[in-house]
Amino acid sequence: MSDKNMQVLFANRPKGWVQESDFKIVESEIPQPKEGQVLVKNSYLSLDPYMRGRMSAGKSYAAPMEIGDVMVGGTVGVVVESKNEQFKPGDVVLGYFGWQKYGLSNGKGLLKVPADKIPLSAFLGVLGMPGITAWIGLNMIGEPKPGETVVVSAASGAVGSVVGQLAKAKGCRAVGIAGGKAKCDYVVNELGFDACVDYKAGNLDQDLKQAAPNGIDIDFENVGGEILDTVLTQLNAYARIPLCGFVSQYNVTEPYQLRNFGAFLASRVKLQGFIVGEHMNLWPQAQQELTQLYTSGKLKYRESVAEGLENAPKAFIGMLKGENFGKQLVKIADR
Amino acid sequence: MSDKNMQVLFANRPKGWVQESDFKIVESEIPQPKEGQVLVKNSYLSLDPYMRGRMSAGKSYAAPMEIGDVMVGGTVGVVVESKNEQFKPGDVVLGYFGWQKYGLSNGKGLLKVPADKIPLSAFLGVLGMPGITAWIGLNMIGEPKPGETVVVSAASGAVGSVVGQLAKAKGCRAVGIAGGKAKCDYVVNELGFDACVDYKAGNLDQDLKQAAPNGIDIDFENVGGEILDTVLTQLNAYARIPLCGFVSQYNVTEPYQLRNFGAFLASRVKLQGFIVGEHMNLWPQAQQELTQLYTSGKLKYRESVAEGLENAPKAFIGMLKGENFGKQLVKIADR
Quick check: B273 and A265 CB within 8 A? Predict the structure, then answer.
């Protein structure tokens, strides 16, 4: 192989918005597997909002990255060389190799996936971490019952789009919140939500009341900030809030100050923050149900694919600004 | 009987702090029981922070009171006349007659209590609604495990004092937050908490860190506002917050704006608002355990007793300002 490895390193801790200069792209030799190791050539890299959190020094659920680290991230790729009997060349594997073309693994945390009839990228989206995040948050914390109203912010995104479709499958009214008419149209017309509110239209409170006329029973929260503050005023008694992300807050230097916290008592709300990696016991069930829905054509999704690892920083910044449409991926190499 | 009935009516909806002029005291004839009814002479009235919420017009878990209503409230008293075969004169009963000397009931919601060896007032405190609130919030939502740290605000109050003692009984570190040295001394020396932080000393963050050096696993929240905001920064992963009250917020016209909401995700916190009356299925178990602890001398409490129903408004206002010390009661009549 005359190919080289390419890596995107974490070069500078951002304050506020991430800049391209916060990353550094380097080339190096392709590593060689030792006994027990596997060399994987990554096909796709998943870009996700949580990565912004890892770039901050503050307390969060995961330790912050250190300057010089390879940027973290989920990947799907193909085994090119194996000195581990559990894997053979050609196997398609889900891993967490980060922003790099080639990765070495001892096999731990590497998951073979059945990629015969399913496009590789789906394992980073509806059938992967984002889809499972939606499944776990909605079912484990939301506990949806038929006839209830489920609101989800960032509704056209990788997690939100699955939340709404799962809610519909449970017999709920699914209401999305998204930025712009194009995303809202997609959420309703293609994903099959009952309604979608464009928060950029500047009339969130009224529009949400119209979209959720019976009040809100579950708020799958991806965004935080002012959108959450508005949702809080429209909760029904015993509402549940799976708290999945705060994408509105990752790039601000001063945190949003929540006004309507009183709703948690007034409506006896249950809220729970969660991260998908801490509920591995639920993954098999989630993956099975999602694959079933997907195979029967009931789980739709859209992808934004950036071509080439060198374009990952730009794509990541765009995603944080909401410029992507659907699951954001980087195509690193052909299968 | 030449006695008269006395009632305290809700006369004016307060904005901000409650005034004595928000109440009106009236006298009337003692009502006569009809077939199936019971006439009760109340001995004690319980004063509780939730009553402030009922005086507001805003959305809350219970409908607001209307001007002219008898102020709501839990009472313990003695049956003086009965045309209901389930009760006889002399029975001691817990009821919800509100701020009045005499009350009529059809028996529904009236509970006979074993007052032979237990002072009547205890049924409004450690063995009544406040004690049961502590038990349900701590056990149902907090789920304390031995060795964990439990923080409770308003720690010398009717609910908080029981929370800490139950936490100790479960093998937890119990840390109170209260206003002033006298209350803190009481919480530690008499109630047996491990530590108590005086929030009025102006050094809450540091003092709380010292009192809870291993971080906070359960925050039994009675107060809200800035105290909660500080507690949020010291939560451990998977912390639980039984949300019981917002006593800091009842008398403000502008709600406190919470800065540290991000902690709910960063620490994967579970928070649940609850009101005790909606978990009646748990009352028997709670009452049994509380009575057991009480009888064995392990459940200490203190009362502030205002003498005479005409002094209830003043005592209520004082309680909202934190002037009481322990469970606030009004003695209406001798048994």
Answer: yes
The CATH number assigned to the domain with range B129-277 reads: 3.40.50.720
Please give, rounded to a whole number of angstroms, the shortest distance from the CA of A266 to a CA of chain B. Answer: 4
pLDDT digits (tens, 9 = 90+) for A204-246: 999 999 999 999 999 999 999 999 999 999 999 999 999 998 8
Q: Do A270 and B271 touch (CB under 8 A)?
A: yes
Q: In sequence order, what DSSP letters do the residues of A3-51 get, joined into one string?
A: --EEEEEE----SSS--GGGEEEEEEPPP---TT-EEEEEEEEE--THH
Q: Match domain B5-125+302-331 to its CATH number in 3.90.180.10, 3.90.1150.10, 3.40.50.1820, 3.30.70.1290.
A: 3.90.180.10
At A114, is the pLDDT very low, low, confident or very high (cuts 50, 70, 90)? confident
Distance CA A207, CA A326 (A): 23
Instruction: Nearest by CB to B262, from A237, A249, A270: name it.
Output: A249
* Cα distance between residue A27 and residue A218, in whole Å: 47
Name which of A257, A262, A274 is nearest B259 (Cβ-Cβ): A257
Which tokens go with B288? 């049994």
Chain B neighbors of A273, CB-CB under 8 A = 264-270
Handedness of CA A159, A162, A164, A166 (dihedral sign): negative
User: Which residues, in sequence order, are CB contacts of B319 under 8 Å at separation 6+?
Assistant: B47, B49, B304, B328
Strand partners, B92: B78
Contact B103, B45 (CB under 8 A): no
B259 chain-A contacts, CB cut-off 8 A: 255, 257
Give ipTM to 2 decimals: 0.84
What are the tens digits of pLDDT across the range A255-269? 899 999 999 999 999
Nearest to A262 among B255, B259, B268 (CB): B255
Q: What residue spans in chain A does CATH classification 3.40.50.720 cover?
A: 129-277
- Nearest CB to A264 within list B59, B266, B273: B273
Question: Which residues from chain A sit within 8 angstroms of residue B59, using beta carbons?
Answer: 266
The beta-carbon neighbor of B271 closest among A58, A237, A264 is: A264
Q: Tell if the CB–CB gap between B61 and A261 is shorter than 8 Å.
A: no
CATH topology of domain A5-125+301-331: Quinone Oxidoreductase; Chain A, domain 1 (3.90.180)
Q: What is the rounded CA–CA span in Å between residue B241 and residue B234?
A: 13
DSSP bridge partners of A144: none
DSSP state of A234: T
Tell me the longest C-alpha to C-alpha distance in chain A.
65
- In A, which residues are within 8 Å of B273 by CB distance? 264-270
> Are the beta carbons of B269 and A273 separated by less than 8 Å?
yes
Which helix (H) or strand (E) is A160 found in, with range?
helix A158-169
pLDDT at B147 over 90: yes
Return the H-helix or E-strand segment holding B292: helix B283-295
Report the residue of chain B nearest A58, measured CA to CA. Answer: B266
Give the distance from CA B168 to its chain's centroid: 20
Contact (CB<8Å) B272/A268? yes
Min distance B190 CA to chain A CA atoms (Å): 31
- Tokens standing for residue A293: 């829905």
Residues of chain A with CATH 3.90.180.10: 5-125+301-331
